[in-house]
């Protein structure tokens, strides 16, 4: 006797989709989890190298000067701890697939940071 399983094959993709929905975290849960992770990264960096809290670099995403502690290298880009949070949440929620997408999306933020830097430099020259 042969059992007809054609109905099972049709329902399987639906069950898999429901399973994903059941196990998916809410946006708020993802953000809260990632906040803990990136904060721990920062603390771990400081524990490994206390000077990293006072060593600065310019973040490739936001364009701001930020501490090295908690930063992360993505391909050719170094992101500050705040932008690592944005990137990891974006990856987890499927909002971005590649780091270049975040870099492109933050172009205005980088320009803003550049303008602020120029204003501060101009003030220094005037004093």
What features would you describe in this structure?
- The strands form two sheets. Strands 1-2 form a two-stranded antiparallel sheet. Strands 3-4 form a two-stranded antiparallel sheet.
- It contains five helices and four strands; from the N terminus they run H-H-E-E-E-E-H-H-H.
- The protein is 62% helix and 9% strand.
Summarize the structure.
The radius of gyration is 22 Å and the shape is globular. Strand 1 and strand 2 form a beta hairpin. It has one domain.
Question: Could you list some keywords that capture this structure?
Answer:
single chain, 5 helices, two-stranded antiparallel sheet, disordered N terminus, globular, mainly alpha, 127 residues
**Helical amount:** 55-70%
Strand order of the largest sheet: 1-2
Number of domains: 1
Give me the count of strands: 4
**Overall radius of gyration:** 22 Å
The biggest sheet, with number of strands, parallel, antiparallel or mixed sense and barrel status, is: 2 strands, antiparallel
Tell me the overall shape: globular
Secondary-structure topology with pairs:
Elements lengths: L5 H18 L3 H22 L7 E3 L6 E3 L4 E3 L2 E3 L1 H12 L6 H7 L1 H20 L1
Antiparallel strand pairs: 1-2, 3-4
Helix pairs in contact: 2-3
């Amino acid at each position: 006797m042969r059992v007809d399983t054609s109905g099972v094959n049709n329902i399987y993709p639906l069950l898999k989709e429901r399973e994903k929905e059941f196990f998916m975290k809410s946006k708020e849960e993802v953000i809260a989890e990632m906040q803990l992770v990136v904060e721990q990264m920062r603390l771990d960096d400081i524990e490994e190298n206390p000077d990293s809290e006072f060593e600065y670099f310019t973040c490739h995403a936001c364009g701001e000067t930020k501490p090295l502690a908690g930063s992360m290298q993505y391909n050719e880009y170094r992101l500050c701890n705040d932008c690592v949070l944005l990137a990891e949440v974006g990856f987890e929620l499927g909002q971005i697939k590649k780091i270049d997408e975040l870099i492109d999306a933050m172009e205005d933020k980088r320009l803003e940071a550049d303008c602020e830097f120029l204003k501060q430099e101009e003030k220094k020259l005037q004093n």
